[in-house]
Amino acid sequence: MPRQDTTAAATEPHHTRLLQALAVVAAEKGLAATSVSDVVREAGVSKRTFYEHFSDKDACFLTLYRQASASALRTLRDSVQPERPWQAQLEAALHAYFAHLAGGPQLLRTLFVEIHHLGAAGAAVRREVMRTLADFMRDTVNRDRDAAHALSEAMALAAVGAITELVLDAIERGEQARLTLLTPAASEIVRRLAQA
After folding, report:
1. Residues 8 and 91 in one domain
2. Which of 38, 89, 116, 190 lies 20 to 30 Å (CA to CA) from residue 76?
3. Long-range contacts: 63-66, Cβ < 8 Å, 24+?
4. Contact 60/37 with Cβ under 8 angstroms?
5. SS3 173
6. Are 36 and 47 in contact (CB under 8 A)?
7. Cβ-contact 172, 129 below 8 angstroms
8. Nearest in space to 170 (alpha carbons), one of 109, 104, 110, 122
9. pTM of this structure
């Protein structure tokens, strides 16, 4: 019988607690003002434990960003109803996405704004997430369309960029809790780009 590896299972709660602690502290203080000491104090673990999981604060934040983005993408995917026309699917998915984002307004601000302050590493992770969202959009829009009328990769990425700017604008105006009101405009952006 193979030996069971309990190390990963035992350290997983620490990993999760550190991510949650970073989310709390960065939402309160901003990422730049947040220290590893702040994070471990909030998580109730040692610095040694922190460095067993992450090389530095930025690496922890990038993991948090990826996980939060993956959670939002799951919401998008779970809301798709393949039997409906793509326009209706997309509108329902976008509404669910905006509702998901609005559920954590402080974390939303931290993730959407702070990622821009992490230089090349932040830009690379942000681009990875945006491409994943664009791929989801293309899959949804192109499911029942012929190749001549398919949403291109460039137009899907443009749509994701435009929708991200709508979210950033809402954050800057302090309207994170009302993100679902962006659904009609976001849907129209995708529809128009799908016809381009």
Report:
1. no
2. 116
3. 63/19, 64/19, 64/22, 64/23, 64/111, 65/111, 65/115, 65/122, 65/125, 65/126, 65/129, 66/125, 66/128, 66/129
4. no
5. coil
6. yes
7. no
8. 109
9. 0.85
Q: How many helices (H) and strands (E) does the chain have?
A: 9, 0
Is 133:161 a contact under the CB 8 Å cutoff?
no
Residues in the chain: 196
Q: Does residue 50 sit in the same domain as residue 106?
A: no
Are 10 and 91 contained in the same domain?
no
How far, in Å, CA of 25 to CA of 37, rounded?
Answer: 11
Encoding tokens for residue 64? 């948090």
What type of residue sits at position 191?
A: R
Q: With contact defined as beta carbons under 8 Å apart, do 20 and 39 qualify?
A: no
Looking up tokens 């590896």 gives 5
Q: What is the pLDDT tens value at each position of the chain, 196 positions in all?
A: 333 333 343 447 999 999 999 999 998 999 999 999 999 999 999 999 999 999 999 999 999 999 999 999 999 999 988 888 888 988 999 999 999 999 988 888 888 889 988 999 999 999 999 999 999 999 988 987 877 788 999 999 999 999 999 999 999 999 999 999 999 999 999 999 988 7
